[in-house]
Amino acid sequence: MSSVLDQMGGEDALRDLVETFYDLVESLPETENLRTLHMEGHGVAHTRIEQFEFLSGFLGGRAYYMEKHRHMNVKDIHAHVPIMMQDAETWLATMDKTLDSLGHAGAHIDRMRATLRRVALILVNDGKVAQ
Fold first, then answer.
1. Domains in the chain: ranges and CATH
2. Any idea which of 25-29, 38-42, 58-62, 116-120 has the lowest mean pLDDT?
């Protein structure tokens, strides 16, 4: 059985997804707060790399993020970020727009969207960050 990453077209397709997603994050008016949150952290350029590495393993490919950081605990990764419900919804809407614009469709993408929604909602902390 092939991975979601394989079904999407492999690492090149994932890189296109991540780059297109963050191009939207950096340019759309509705993603202003996402930009702000990223700039309070390591910045968007850093996040492009980390997101690709995380999603590769998350989607069944090489676990670059795990190899580098020794975990893939999304709660720990985002513990320092004040994430409101609107931020999660904006992130998800932007990812949906990205998937649609790149022509990704099918049952594997539907499952991926559902999984990303569950993860995004788990990260909502109403602004209460770990110190």
1. 4-123 (1.10.490.10)
2. 38-42
**What tokens were used for 77?**
């990764």
Q: Centre a 10 Å sphere on the Cβ of residue 110 and count the other Cβ atoms it contains.
A: 10
Mean pLDDT value of segment 78-94: 96
CB 112 within 8 Å of CB 14 = no
pLDDT of the residue at 60: 97
4 in Cβ contact with 112 (< 8 Å)? yes
Cβ contact 56:69 at 8 Å: no
Nearest-angstrom CA–CA distance, 131 and 118 = 24
What does the alpha-carbon distance between residue 19 and residue 85 come to, in Å, rounded to a whole number? 24
Residue at 24: amino acid letter: L
Q: Rounded to an integer, what distance in angstroms lies between the CA atom of residue 70 and that of residue 95?
A: 26
pLDDT digits (tens, 9 = 90+) for 36-82: 999 888 889 999 999 999 999 999 999 999 999 999 999 999 999 99
d(CA 71, CA 94) in angstroms, rounded, equals 26
